Amino acid sequence: MLINNAISLLARELRDVNTPYQFMDDDLYSALVDGVDELNTRGNREYEVVGTGSSATISPEPGITDKKVWILCSAIQILRGEKIKASATAMTLSNSGGRTDLTSIPEAIGSAVAILQTRVNQILFMERRMDVEGQMGSREKTRQVVE
Is 60 within 8 Å of 47 (Cβ atoms)? Predict the structure, then answer.
């Protein structure tokens, strides 16, 4: 799968669909490349980025579940960076016109990261559960044949 083809999937996951876009395509592309490494640490299959630029692909072709995990891992990469940037500017400004409090933004982004990580964990749990159930069903069929 071309990495560039996943940019719109990642943008939709981040709810970045209205112009002007918050994230540039280069940022999304970089997060998708980094997301492959994160996918490799969480999954049971090894993926790699082959090629560079607009011709870069993820290999082997990820299945539906791995593609979902990859996109979520890439979204987590983007939001972690956003949290770091927000932390650098988290402050409270007070003047005669009122008060502006930016201190809760990093916490809100951290909550969004936690939600995405929970989704990844749920997907992986369900995938492993289905694998185990499939193995158990296979063993049961083997027992029936043997008996």
Answer: yes
Dump pLDDT digits (tens) for 29-74. 999 999 999 999 987 789 999 999 889 999 999 999 999 999 999 9
pLDDT of residue 35: 94
| Pair 50, 56: CB distance under 8 Å | yes
If DSSP codes are grouped into helix, strand and coil, which group holds residue 112? Answer: helix
Dihedral (CA of 80, 88, 16, 104) sign: positive
Check residue 146 and give its pLDDT.
Answer: 54
Of 69, 84, 59, 85, nearest to 9 by C-alpha is: 69
Nearest to 33 by CA among 10, 65, 63, 64: 10
Both tokens of 70, joined, read: 């990859």
For residue 93, the SS3 value is strand
Mapped onto helix, strand or coil, the DSSP state of residue 100 is strand
Closest by CA to 103, choosing from 91, 85, 86, 88, is: 91
Backbone φ and ψ of 80, nearest 5°: -60, -40
Output the average pLDDT for the chain: 88
| pLDDT score recorded for residue 147 | 57
